[in-house]
């Protein structure tokens, strides 16, 4: 008899661990299995829920499939779940919440696609295997049968466990058929690489290369959702690399692969693309707690203005003057195209715009006024700006790296000292609008706004003023406006 292999041992351990994980959910799974069995129907935990249970990362979302039609699923759940809704019922899905668990139960499907959009012509299947074979990847085509007595039976007709053990993403059928049906699955492959640390099989990789242009069928909102999940994963660099290798990025995020600037023997410069991925990783290392979507996007995109501003200088140097200004504009254009919120666009663009300003600090030559403006312009993004600037140091020269970090330490100390004395988080003029109107004898209008801006600039330059000094400065400014 052949001895067990390492994969066999690991398979047993992972399945045993998954059984323990699911056992902790018995208060939900057991009564749910009983209700479906009493109604004469089968119930299976399926998809990402099974994959994540095996990997020991199951969250609070549970996905099921069943042979019961949606209307009967609603009846089975009625009176047991805390709430249910039918927003997905057109696709055979009933959603519910029980205790802290989000539940989705979908009737067996055997859909057909028109290969123009990505929404299928929904048709219900007759078997679990028919449902599983239509799924995106084999690691998401595993199931656990939930019995009436709470028993659990692992079901894996697509051999998804083999792929999971190998850390590989492959499709149940031909990848070309899967991606023609739903091109978003190509981007999901990159997302799962970033989330799970897996690689894609050679045939999946080649199919994405051949079919990358099909991603144009997908709406910007769905693309954005996948990109966010990718960049928030533990391994976003691997996902971004896959997108660039296969041509997906050239369509949905072309500014990133365009950072792969040619290097010639006469005008050397660092690899901007690889530098940006290093900055992304170093920014992640500086995160406090949960992944920071704004910081990660800013880190990835902070140098996207370099290709458009590259100039070869005499003597073999290369310059990228004002690439932060150009880059901020490019960020706005791309993120708006991806339908990001105005706040998200503003935040990422502002970080890109500000990421170089620190380099004017030198060895502490900034005046207090310059420090105030740095804090004011960063506003609520200041802590992220600190992380981005520190992450942007990728030099291999340890002495230079240490000097840059020490200089930024000094800037942060100055910010803290001035903030403690002046409440930098809320820099406002020393006179409010009412005081301005009373002093200058003005009605509400644009002139009051101009006066307010003058006082704010004065506050940034000189710090807090006494009321008497602020009034004198305002009167002098007002007199100069009349000349």
Q: Would you report the number of β strands?
A: 11
Radius of gyration, in Å, reads 29 Å
Please state the structural category: alpha+beta
The largest beta-sheet arranges its strands as: 3-4-5-2-1-6-7
Give unreliable regions as ranges. 264-268
What's the shape? elongated
Strand content: 5-15%
Biggest sheet details: 7 strands, mixed
CATH topology-level name of the largest domain:
Beta Polymerase, domain 2
The share of residues in helices is 40-55%
CATH homologous superfamily placement of the largest domain: Beta Polymerase, domain 2
In CATH terms, what is the architecture of the largest domain? 2-Layer Sandwich
The first-level CATH class name of the largest domain: Alpha Beta
Protein name: CCA tRNA nucleotidyltransferase
GO biological process, one term: tRNA processing
Domain HD/PDEase: 268-434
EC number: 2.7.7.72
Write up this protein.
This is CCA tRNA nucleotidyltransferase. It comes from Speluncibacter jeojiensis. Keywords: Magnesium, Metal-binding, Nucleotide-binding, Nucleotidyltransferase, Transferase, tRNA processing. Its cofactor is Mg(2+). The structure is a single chain. The protein is α+β, with helices and mostly antiparallel strands and 483 residues long. It has four domains: 6-166, Beta Polymerase, domain 2 (2-Layer Sandwich), CATH 3.30.460.10; 168-253, Hydrophobic Seed Protein; 282-427, no CATH class; 428-482. It contains 23 helices and eleven strands. A hairpin with a 7-residue loop joins strand 3 (83-85) and strand 4 (93-98). Helix 8 (184-196) runs parallel beside helix 10 (220-231). The N and C termini lie far apart (102 Å). The model is unreliable at 264-268 (pLDDT under 50).
